[in-house]
Amino acid sequence: MSQINNQRAKGSPIYLLPSMITLSSMFCGFYAMVQSIGGDFYHAGLAILFSMILDSLDGRVARLTHTSSPFGAELDSLADMVAFGAAPAMIVFNWGLHNLGKIGWLVAFVYCACAGLRLARFNVMIGVVDKKYFQGLPSPSAAALVVGYVYICAEYNFSSSFMVLLGLFVTLLAGLSMVSNVRFYSFKEFHFHQTAPFRALLMFLALLVFLFYYPEEAIYGFFVLYTLISYFLWIFRIGYRGKIKAADKAEPSSALPLPPDSNINDNQNG
């Protein structure tokens, strides 16, 4: 038994620093679920936000310190499943979907299952898809859509039946978006050291002021715009490809030579 454990340890080294960050992200997700059970959706939303920040750090820390390992990658997927799969489903169910009966917990489960499928597909397609884009909505962004909606509704006391039904739609949309083939920009090729026009600084200043006065709305609005713009570009690309295919089919027919009617008539008359 000890030999097997030694082989596993040699085959997959365990590095402390990135694993600690990943476990902290998992802890935030579990803490969010506990707080949602008690009806504290404010701290539940903050916990998911901290989990997103930690999730963005563990991989970068591992690459910077050269401590990447298969163990760390698997642990990161499990932590993401807890923080961005199970936790948002539990939070939105405890907030309002439990009032809808069977359809409420079924939609919450669909979201949780889609998060697991999204993470599994991501793991097996590493190195296959373009790094510039994600295939399907990333699980942290999906969690931000669901938990952010609950956070806004709890903050402003939006608890009507319409808001609960809208939350059901947001949860279902976020879940299905994770397993869709829509491409979402990954920001992995976005660099701050590149040159930018002067108006970019003005836009950043306006965003900074808005973020200072309305932090929750600004953060949630970013993820909403990120999702909507990605869907808009996807629909635009489908329409553009359809026009190209239609033009390609029309070109051969238009390029066919006209039948030599005059020569045929001349031969018949001759």
Topology:
Blueprint: H1 2-11, H2 16-37, H3 41-64, H4 70-95, H5 102-124, E1 133-135, H6 139-155, H7 161-178, E2 183-185, H8 198-213, H9 215-254, H10 261-269
Antiparallel strand pairs: 1-2
Helix pairs in contact: 2-3, 2-4, 3-4, 3-6, 4-5, 4-6, 5-7, 6-7, 6-9, 8-9
Distance between the termini: 101 Å
| Largest beta sheet: strand ordering | 1-2
Please tell me what the overall shape is: globular
Strand content: under 5%
Contiguous runs where pLDDT drops below 50 for at least 5 residues: 1-5, 264-270
Strands, total number: 2
Main sheet properties: 2 strands, antiparallel
Q: What structural class do helix, strand and pairing data support?
A: mainly alpha
Gyration radius, rounded = 26 Å
Helix content: over 70%
SSE succession: HHHHHEHHEHHH
Number of helices: 10
Question: How would you state the average pLDDT, rounded?
Answer: 86
